[in-house]
């Protein structure tokens, strides 16, 4: 009976304090490092794409000089595609740099919410893949979190989540062909498929003169 009368010696556990809804600066240090590293990678890829574009433009010029219509079009398409890739890499680099700067500032002020923890982990995974679409998707989530903190990230014009199209718009190809032609005084209208414009190639007269017209003109001058 004494078992039931004996007062329990166990003490109630003190209530645990709820964890603050903040992240420690150290929690994001690795993510910040990866973001900075990826931004530099994007810069290097942009330079590589620019070099490839210039190389394709030179090949396009050579193809035009050799009257290689198909070759000129192919190299023009490649040049346009590399230019689009360069712009995409530069835009992503800019977005990464902007988010890193804001994230560092707010980590120091301890205003980064715990909800960014999951986003940070997802970003780490995306950065490992170097997949532009995946990185962009997580970047969108990151920037929405900053909007909730009244940190409206400065977006570059347009979203870069769209992958570079495999088929290049024909008008952009024609524009590049015209640019190469004008820079090197080459005839490209036949390659583009438009009407041939007299006088566009160096050394070609803008209008052929009919010998009969010359004789008629001289006769009129003598009669004056």
UniProtKB/TrEMBL annotation:
<dbReference type="Pfam" id="PF03357">
    <property type="entry name" value="Snf7"/>
</dbReference>
<protein>
    <recommendedName>
        <fullName>Charged multivesicular body protein 1a</fullName>
    </recommendedName>
</protein>
<feature type="region of interest" description="Disordered">
    <location>
        <begin position="1"/>
        <end position="27"/>
    </location>
</feature>
<feature type="compositionally biased region" description="Low complexity">
    <location>
        <begin position="1"/>
        <end position="26"/>
    </location>
</feature>
<dbReference type="GO" id="GO:0007034">
    <property type="term" value="P:vacuolar transport"/>
</dbReference>
<dbReference type="InterPro" id="IPR005024">
    <property type="entry name" value="Snf7_fam"/>
</dbReference>
<feature type="region of interest" description="Disordered">
    <location>
        <begin position="193"/>
        <end position="224"/>
    </location>
</feature>
